[in-house]
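Could you help me review a protein record that somebody else here produced? What it holds is a sequence and that sequence's fold in token form. I have pasted the whole thing underneath without changing anything:
=====
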Amino acid sequence: MMKVLSKHLFYPLWDAKDKSERLREWKRLEQQQWWSREKLEAYQKERLADLVRYAAEKSPYYRELLNNLDAGANDPDLRAFERIPVTTKYDIRNNLDQFISDDYRKDELVQAKTGGSTGVSLQLFFDERCQEFRNAAQLLADRWAGWDLGVKKASVWGNPPVPVGLKQTLRLHLLDRTIYLDTMDLNPDSMGAFVQRWRKEKPGAVFGHAHSIYIFAKYLTEAGITDLRPKGIVATSMMLLGHEREVIEQAFDCKVTNRYGCEEVGLIACECEEHQGMHLNIPHVYVEFLDANNQPVKPGEPGKIVVTDLNNRAMPLIRYRVEDVGVYSDRKCACGRGLPILERLEGRVADFLKLPGGGQVAGISLVERTLTKVPGVEQMQLVQESLAELQINRVKGPEYDDQTDANLISALREVFDEQVALTIRDVPSIPQEASGKYRFSICKV
């Protein structure tokens, strides 16, 4: 009954009370996902040109940057747009007030802050309409995963929100309908208590950090718990490794939906029910994949991900480098949606480890390959202190024996030659960041 009331009564009434565009935009997105690629891209470019024109007039930072470029307006091939310099985290941090549009006041905007996992924390601002559009895109992606409006969620998340006041309490029970497993305190007791609450509350979908869901799934498997059966699982906030996906899907008997986004621009891409790459959210973001010289890479080649947020007018972000590396594809998905494909993520820029000869390797991919190749390693983290030193934080697994560490070194020697000192540090667990996320590859060079 609560599920039906939440979907058909509480959601519409709450949006009407707040004069929100969330549900209206969600319904538009439900239709747009089935448009042809050509129609979607035309709509995206129209929104892009409008956003650039607005930023050139209203954002002090972009006004100075864009007025001499004639970028965006009457630019069907985006040649002028591609001459706009890439915006970095340092640009935002050092010029924050200049990014805010003349039409808005900071104290009236929605505020957020990134955790600074790549070394630079950011203060961010959004207008209400932008926030509503982002929530609408999340609703669409949630439905791809098997969730629907009104269905209760199990959230595996760090620092879960505590409702303050009547309005937040009502929203939690009538709309959000979420139970939390705090990833800052994952242990057998807390996970056991969460299982008991799950059995009582019966959530229909799971959301959370990819690795945290994996830890919970491992607990379920080892404890022989087989009665938690959601209709959808969404892994987000960090890369979903292949072996983690297998463990999660086996523990819950449910497919995992991989999702990619960031605090700065919201949802960037998400898997559909085919689970063959992630659909780019092109009605809301314009995404580029660039090489070291900020030139477009070809489909199938890894590139730095650069995003323009088409929703946020309060604090426009144009050609913003999110510090991630990904590979896009020009293939069509079997689902029939016109949304293009992000084939895979290869990690954050800061997670790429450097080789003495001048090359680099995707640390997260190296960790995944090593974990699947070497028995006896439960978790590992690579920390590069210098070109000549790599520290391996290793957590022993059930199959650990006197050959495990030798095999681990041997596997890493396939990438790092004898110039690099490989040091194994035995640790009980991989530490979390303040956000509850995990980093498995850290380059300090």
Observations:
- The mean pLDDT is 87.
- DSSP finds 13 helices and 19 strands in the chain.
